[in-house]
Amino acid sequence: MTVDIIPQLEIPKEIPLGEYLFLRIAQANPKLRSIFGVAGDYSLNLLEHLYAKTVQKQNINFVGLCNELNSAYVANGYSIAIGGLAVLITTFGVGELSAINGIASSFSEYIPILHIVGISSRAQRKYAADPKNPVKNFHHLIQNKNQLLAPNHNVYQEMSTDVSVVQEILESNDEKALDQIDRVLHEILQNSRPGYLFIPADLPDFYVSTVRLFEKLDFYGHQKKCTQQLDKLTNLLLDKLYNASSPSILSDLLISRFNLQDKLNQFIRRIDPGQKFLKLFSTNMGRNLDESLPNHIGCYFGAVSSSPEVVNMLEKETDTLFIFGHANMETNTASYSSDFSEIKDYIEINHDYILVDGKYHLIKQEHGNRLFTLENLLDNLIDNFDESRYAHSILPVNVTYKYFPKLAAITNNEKYIQQNKLLDFVNGYLQAGDILLIDVCAFVFGAADLKLPPGCQYISQSFYASIGHSLPTSVGVCFAVNDLGQNRRILVLEGDGSAQMTIQELSAFVRYGSQLKVKPQIFIMNNEGYTIERTIQGPQRSYNDIAPNWHWTGLVRAFGDPEEKFHTSLTLNNDYELDKYRIRTTDCANRLELVELKMDQNDVLTKLVRFLEKCKQ
Questions:
Q1: Per the annotation, does 527 bind a ligand?
Q2: C-alpha 136: how far from its chain's center?
Q3: What is the pLDDT of residues 320-366, one digit of tens each?
Q4: Alpha carbon of 396 to those of 272, 289, 322, 377: distances in Å?
Q5: Residue 393: which region, alpha, beta or left (left: phi > 0; alpha: psi -120 to 50)?
Q6: pLDDT digit string (tens) for 159-181?
Q7: What are phi and psi of 573, to 5 degrees?
Q8: Does residue 535 contact residue 608 with C-beta atoms inside 8 Å?
Q9: 8 A C-beta contact, residue 118 and residue 46
């Protein structure tokens, strides 16, 4: 990736490090226009440099939010929707630790977040390093267990090591600091996982050279590749494809996390332009193929897939299976309930390795360097595919089934909205280009039964499963959609227990109401508690209860919109009212819409019950 963001004549030979950092971030993601976080005294010097003229010319703005955990979730949503790096800024200790749960979710779900933390000054750190000095305990920094010893100024950085791929503490304003910045950005983008940059409070004002801003960049590492190993593995994979009699492709999470949907679809079109032979499947977390294609069979979710036919066509009627972008996660496989024992050739393609013929070929070496990227591999597969060695596309006999949703709710309920009815509603309500967010709730297990229209993007956090993420995540999605100049519907489904975790971020849609031209429709499923947990154990126990009497439809007014300038709120009490809502003609894309759905405490989809049964086995 080569980006010269500023003409050389318009920038001095030296600028403050804080200003330099924001310009380097703009190069790492030219689409980025919003940076998220909560200001704190250790990060104020850095934040000031966002207002430098050179940075303002990049149209980068700081978006302040209610707390750091929410900010991390917002950054996650922004990264996924914009397809690249997102940035979170917090302060020493109290801020970074509040955010670390959200950063752990970024790591678990492969989301490239740069977490910048303003930390104690170099003078404070130097003072603490000298054992001759009397002990000084600075605010936000926990004391040493031995009160006669200085506190450890790196104590929080040490906590971040297992939830990030890289951590750097800047200590100077020389070339080493610029190397550290580039290393952090490089590691984040190559691994699609979060990294940390710790910046002492006094350092952003010191000047650094701008020479690097005009050099070629390759943050993703696409230009450096071991062509010999790449060609060898490419030929091996293509030979497997040429010799297959009933091949299938299962597209998984990492294809979308590395923004390779278009590349994979290009490869698929090369193989099967008639869309009649090659069977296509999506995993529950990797809904990144066009599900309207004639040869897209359905969502494969282990033993609880869209239908028994989906399972049969993948597990029993496939002789060669390619899993592109494989993500090894319990909630992506229905508790590892897949059975690939009858598949002759099983090929697993991850961004770090390729498993073929029972042997792991490491793409990422033990020392951390990559032989090539997943994008390099797809490009090579596309360029080297030989139609003359692959004659299967003339035999339209391999695709004999395609999943279409059936009505789940047999009858309407007058007392509440059934989970099955909501499933039917979402299947009928989704439109091409929508972005659908589902929180960790009883309903999320029905996602495999949804058929996504073309261009529809599905976002969930079903693996790390920190409830309450989807509301702030939708804030980040909205900023990304607006920054890209898109006009897409954003739909959020969230349980009441989840919503109570992060509800204050509703205020962002009011605070930035004039700026955000697209706002979400948020459906709060009010079933008075933790329904997944009730299904697991203790359906009537108080530990699964929450405060039952929140006035959901009044919350946005309380958060700053009493005149409903930016929002509409309403309650749907039963299946009949949900039907009426679906056929309405009102377009609320420019207004936040909060819809309370009255649901039953113990009503769940059969998918959830079956998933939990698999977890017990």
A1: yes
A2: 41
A3: 999 999 999 999 999 999 999 999 999 999 999 999 999 999 999 98
A4: 10, 20, 20, 28
A5: alpha
A6: 999 999 999 999 999 999 999 99
A7: -95, -25
A8: yes
A9: yes
Four-CA torsion 355, 359, 365, 370, nearest 10 degrees: -40
Eight-state DSSP code of residue 167: E
Secondary structure element (H or E) that encloses residue 53, with its range: helix 53-56
Say whether pTM exceeds 0.90. yes
Place of tokens 């390795």: 353
Q: How far is CA 196 from CA 99, 121, 148, 589, in A?
A: 12, 17, 30, 36
The CA-based dihedral angle spanning residues 502, 486, 434, 61, taken in that order and rounded to the nearest 10 degrees: -10
Give the E-state strand segments of 425-535 in sequence order.
Answer: 435-438, 457-460, 490-495, 521-526
Check: CB of residue 310 under 8 Å from CB of residue 299: yes
Tell me how long the chain is.
617
Q: Report the pLDDT value the prediction gives residue 2, as an integer from 0 to 100.
A: 42
Q: 70 with 502: CB under 8 angstroms?
A: yes
Q: For residue 118, what are its two tokens?
A: 């303003």
Res. 1: pLDDT tops 50: no
Alpha-carbon distance of 273 to 569, in angstroms, equals 47
Q: H helices within 462-559, ranges in order?
A: 470-483, 496-502, 507-511, 531-536, 555-558
Are 519 and 476 spatial neighbours (Cβ–Cβ below 8 Å)? no
Residue 105: strand, helix, or coil: helix
Q: What is the DSSP letter of 538?
A: -
**Confidence band for 274, pLDDT divided at 50, 70 and 90:** confident
Q: Which residues of 542-571 are buried (b: 16+ CB within 10 A; e: fewer)?
A: eebeeeeebebbebbeebebeeeebbebee
- Give the list of residues 6+ apart from residue 579 with CB closer than 8 angstroms, or none: 412
Closest C-alpha among 95, 101, 87, 100 to residue 33 = 87
Domains of the chain, CATH where assigned? 8-214 (3.40.50.970), 227-394 (3.40.50.1220), 419-616 (3.40.50.970)
Query: How far, in Å, CA of 597 to CA of 581, rounded?
Result: 11
Task: Say if residue 182 carries a ligand binding annotation.
Answer: no
Q: Could you tell me the pLDDT band of residue 216, with boundaries at 50, 70 and 90? A: confident
575, pLDDT greater than 90: yes
Pairing of strands 320-324, 247-251: parallel
Q: Is 529 marked as a binding-site residue?
A: yes
Dihedral angle over CA of 75, 76, 81, 86, nearest 10? 50
